[in-house]
Amino acid sequence: MGACLAQAVHQVGYAASTLCGRSKTSHSTTIAARSCAEALCATVWQVSHHGEVLFNTDMLAINQDVTPQGRPVVANSSTVWARFLSDGSVAVALYNENDSAASIGLDFAALGAMTPAPVESAATWGPTTKAAMRDLWTHTANGTVTGKIPAMTVLPHQTIVVRLTKQ
Fold first, then answer.
1. What's the predicted TM-score (pTM) here?
2. Confidence check: pLDDT of 23 > 90
3. Which string of DSSP letters, residue by residue, matches the chain?
4. Shared domain check, 55 and 130
């Protein structure tokens, strides 16, 4: 059982870092690096918190997708990351590395302008593209967006991860 838990903790740390180079919280990265024995001695809060991360099927699906790892949408910026998935959807991470809240969004044209293009279909994302948006941490459908992810408040060191599926 202990080895299974340690492997699962490692996989979740990898899932978060695969998309955006950062984990949901720095604490998740820390627990992923711990030994199996330390993981088993976690407090009730830690078990609850990590269970939320460990069993997040939406995030694990991104990690297990066969497509190349996500990368920054804009060169030399760690704020917005994208990963084009095998079903044609795009996982997008909005990351705030600052110590204060930030307003972060994404124009779909930036997905089409990624150089080199991560996939051929990237160029089809633009100002008229309609997509269903799903928040992968809260497991909620956030309606349909056109041409952009509207700017949203991202708390300090928080990562909001959404999946965009063309309509």
1. 0.71
2. no
3. -HHHHHHHHHHHHHHHHHHHSS-SSHHHHHHHHS-HHHHHT--HHHHHHHHHHHT-HHHHHHHH-SSPPPEESSTT--SEEEEE-TTS-EEEEEE--SSS-EEEEEEHHHHHT-SS-SSGGGGG-STT-EEEEEETTTTEEEEEEESEEEEEEE-TT-EEEEEEEE-
4. no
